[in-house]
Amino acid sequence: LIQLSIPLNFIGFIYREIRQGLTDIEQMFDLLDVAPEVVDKPDATDLVVRDGHIVFDNVRFAYDPERQILRGISFTVPAGKSIAIVGPSGAGKSTISRLLYRFYDVQDGSITIDGQDIRDVTQKSLRAAIGMVPQDTVLFNDTIRYNIRYGRPDASDAEVEQAAELAQIGDFIRSLPDGFDTMVGERGLKLSGGEKQRVAIARTILKAPPIQVLDEATSALDTATEQEIQQALDFVSKGRTTLVIAHRLSTVIGCDEIIVLKDGEIAERGTHAELLAKKGLYEQMWARQSEAIEAERKLREARETD
Ligand code: ATP
């Protein structure tokens, strides 16, 4: 009898909890940290990109109401220019790219492209206009050719191969046993972070979108790979509106403007030279990174002479 009564009591307790939960369904979603799904407005129209001029106006955002991530961010990415976002880990850099792609809606302020609020346009047209090179590209369990062609399904074999060349991954692919027909992904050949990122760049070269977001890999890449990726990125961002989410500073030197994010606010902004002259946060980050690169170089030299 005792054995039976305990579970029954417990079930009663759970039942009450669920009833209570159902009355507070919104609170329950808050507790579960379920992101509200972004939906198109009933009267959403297609985004019309004329030049690709992006404006973030006083953007505020939090994943969790208790913790504000962006506290009123304003900046412009003029048509055809490259703007970089840098800042300490967790500052909210990648969040900016997620908001532009509208994975989440801003909670205050607005993001516009050529004067159109991105909340008023269809997600399909918005995402078609933006080429996203994410930190970690997901590959399909298919050939490397299929994976690159994903950028533009009607591209010819020659176009796919040319895109691979421009993304600095052509030599690597040709060295594989089945070349462009090599199976990749979880069940095929596993590519390194740098290789996957170049596949993503090749996709973007095929897609040729007016706007581009490059969310640089956080993981350290060796210097040669980094240079190859840099060349590929330089090619793909030429003449296109480009937002670079930079986790390393070596990639942002040539950008038209660098925005330094700290604690959800813009701490500094300017070109590489202007920011170095300011001797502020950017200059400190630069000095620290240069030291790290130098230490790594010495370590490698020591290893090579062993
Ligand atoms: P890093 O350089 O380390 O990649 P970042 O500046 O790109 O950092 P974000 O990825 O924008 O940082 O994250 C900003 C903050 O938001 C972090 O503290 C992170 O923990 C938090 N965050 C990110 N994604 C979510 C999420 N889906 N839910 C809740 N919090 C999140």
Automatic annotation (TrEMBL):
Q: Where in the cell is it found?
A: Cell membrane
Domain called ABC transporter: residue spans? 54-288
Give the UniProt entry's GO cellular component terms: plasma membrane
Chief localization class? membrane
The terms under GO molecular function for this entry are: ABC-type transporter activity; ATP binding; ATP hydrolysis activity
Instruction: Enumerate the transmembrane spans.
Output: 1-15
> Does the record's keyword annotation contain ATP-binding?
yes
Q: Keyword set for this entry?
A: ATP-binding, Membrane, Nucleotide-binding, Transmembrane, Transmembrane helix
Task: Output the superkingdom of the source species.
Answer: Bacteria
Q: Where is the signal peptide?
A: none
Q: Which family does it belong to?
A: Belongs to the ABC transporter superfamily.
Q: What is this protein called?
A: ABC transporter ATP-binding protein/permease
